[in-house]
Amino acid sequence: xxxxxxxxxxxxxxxxxxxxxxxxxxxxxxxxxxxxxxxxxxxxxxxxxxxxxxxxxxxxxxxxxxxxxxxxxxxxxxxxxxxxxxxxxxxxxxxxxxxxxxxxxxxxxxxxxxxxxxxxxxxxxxxxxxxxxxxxxxxxxxxxxxxxxxxxxxxxxxxxxxxxxxxxxxxxxxxxxxxxxxxxxxxxxxxxxxxxxxxxxxxxxxxx
Length: 208
Description:
single chain, mainly alpha, elongated
């Protein structure tokens, strides 16, 4: 029985996602320059010719991943700013982040890959592509959103008295360190509690 158009679309979407997952894994392990489309196709379990049905070039594939990260960061920024709450949006994000670290879902590799993009973007001033430029802007937006959240919490006696920008820096450093530790330790990784992570910003665990 021939496949229906819906089945074709589902298969195409599944293959495209396999390609993206393979690219994340290889870019994270080898860096952008150390990967070509042939290697990504092999990692995804498809032919080299097939991969070009989904992405015309390695740059297009890379930019697709970077754009996804930028979209996610902007959604996170909105979750911090489109509310009058302090603890709940912060704890909700950290809970999801820790759950992603605990699962073998590729989230850790994606997070580490984006950290590589941040570093290379800063180093390649004037030479980086539009997608990387947009990701860097999105990262600044989410940082500013966390600073705003900290300042909102300070007016209610919820967040620590250190400068908000310093606290935001420490918060993101903790998240990055956790991702690296999860990658290094694998299944031996012991995830901290939500309260431990949010304790870098909050004076105490309170729901407001």
